[in-house]
Amino acid sequence: MAGKFQVLTITDEAADFIRSLVEASDDAVKGIRIGVKNGGCAGMEYVLNKVVDVNPQDDLVEDKGVSVYIDPKAVLFLLGTELGFEQTKFRSGLTFNNPNQTSACGCGESVSLRPVDPSALDALRAK
Asked: For labelling, which of 6, 26, 41, 113 has a CA lying 20 to 30 Å from the CA of 104?
């Protein structure tokens, strides 16, 4: 979406995966919601959920025909992230290329994140 601030970007592969999730759902799913929570051996975990009822306080990224809602508490941890998709011999799913990630645990399920300076976020939103 040109000219509009977006918390994250979505690769074509991630958009295809999200679209397939939405289309395969029995519910009226509008997209996915991303958040972060404390947990795991590295300190934080990404949280993904299908969105049926939109939270008006969420940041919305609409790109490549899909909608990704961002929990307002996660915005400072996700700013600049590229949401991708990976399929390997052993796993498939969404990936986070996050410049705010300082480390990850060996299993890849838990990460350590540092928030962006809130003034940087305000500057982007003002554009």
From this structure: 6
CB 51 within 8 A of CB 69: yes
Please report, as a single letter, which amino acid is at residue 54.
V
CA-wise closest residue to 104 among 45, 33, 37, 36: 45
Contact 127, 5 (CB under 8 A): yes
Could you tell me whether strands 92-97 and 101-104 are parallel, antiparallel, or unpaired per DSSP bridges? Answer: unpaired
pTM of the entire predicted model? 0.81
pLDDT digit string, tens, across residues 71-95? 999 998 899 999 999 988 888 889 8
Per-domain boundaries in the chain: 8-126
Cα dihedral across residues 26, 45, 72, 62: positive or negative = negative
CB–CB of 65/16 below 8 Å? no
Query: Taking CA 49 as the corner, what is the angle to CA 48 and CA 53, rounded to the nearest 5 degrees?
Result: 145
**C-beta atoms surrounding 72 within 10 Å:** 12
Per the CB < 8 A criterion, the answer to whether 69 and 89 are in contact is no
Q: Beta partners for 37?
A: 45
